[in-house]
Inverse folding.
C-alpha cells in the first residue's frame, strides 16, 4: 500500500500519543522528562496550532504510522526551531518513512523562515541518530532552550 504524508488532524491525537509512548517504552527510555510525560503529547493537533509550527503524519491507507514536527520551543535562539515528536510505529521503521518525514519537516522549517533546527534524543535511538547524522545534524555538548525534556542527553543542531 502507498504511504502518504499529510498535516496532522485532531483525529490523529490518540494514535500518535500511543505511538510516541510505546516507542519510548520499547527503547527503555525514561518516561519522566521526555515526550512520554509531556501533557502536550495527548493533544498534538491543538499543540501544533501555534504560529510557526507544523506537524506531518505518515499513513498507510487510513492507518497512522507516525509523525514529525517543527516547533518554536521556548528559549531557542532566534531563527531556530526544534524537530519534535519524531516517532514511528514499529512496522513503519526501516522503510524510508522516517527519512521522508524528516525531509518534509526540514522543508517546512525552511518555508517558515527558520535558519537552524535543533533536536533532542537518546543514544539508544541508534537509527534515528544515524538519520540525523546523515542529514547534516551536528552534536552539541549541551541542551538549547527550555523544552522540558530534561532526560534527553543527545542534542544536535543543523543549519538550514
Amino acid at each position: 500500500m502507498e504511504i502518504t504524508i499529510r498535516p496532522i488532524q485532531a483525529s490523529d491525537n490518540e494514535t500518535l500519543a500511543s505511538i510516541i509512548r510505546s516507542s519510548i517504552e520499547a527503547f527503555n527510555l525514561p518516561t519522566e522528562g521526555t515526550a512520554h510525560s509531556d501533557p502536550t503529547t495527548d493533544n498534538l493537533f491543538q499543540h501544533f496550532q501555534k504560529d510557526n509550527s507544523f506537524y506531518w503524519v505518515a499513513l498507510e491507507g487510513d492507518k497512522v504510522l507516525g509523525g514529525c514536527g517543527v516547533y518554536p520551543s521556548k528559549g531557542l535562539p532566534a531563527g531556530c526551531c526544534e524537530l519534535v515528536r519524531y516517532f514511528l510505529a514499529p512496522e513503519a521503521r526501516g522503510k524510508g518513512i522516517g527519512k521522508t518525514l524528516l525531509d518534509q519537516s526540514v522543508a517546512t522549517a525552511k518555508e517558515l523562515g527558520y535558519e537552524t533546527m535543533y533536536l533532542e534524543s537518546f543514544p539508544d535511538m541508534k537509527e534515528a541518530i544515524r538519520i540525523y547524522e546523515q542529514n547534516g545534524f551536528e552534536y552539541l555538548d549541551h541542551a538549547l532552550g527550555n523544552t522540558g525534556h530534561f532526560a534527553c542527553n543527545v542534542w544536535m543542531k543543523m543549519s538550514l
Observations:
- The two ends are 32 Å apart (CA to CA).
- The mean pLDDT is 94.
- Helices lie at 13-26, 44-47, 97-111, 126-134.
- The beta strands are 3-7, 54-60, 63-71, 80-88, 116-121, 138-140, 154-159.
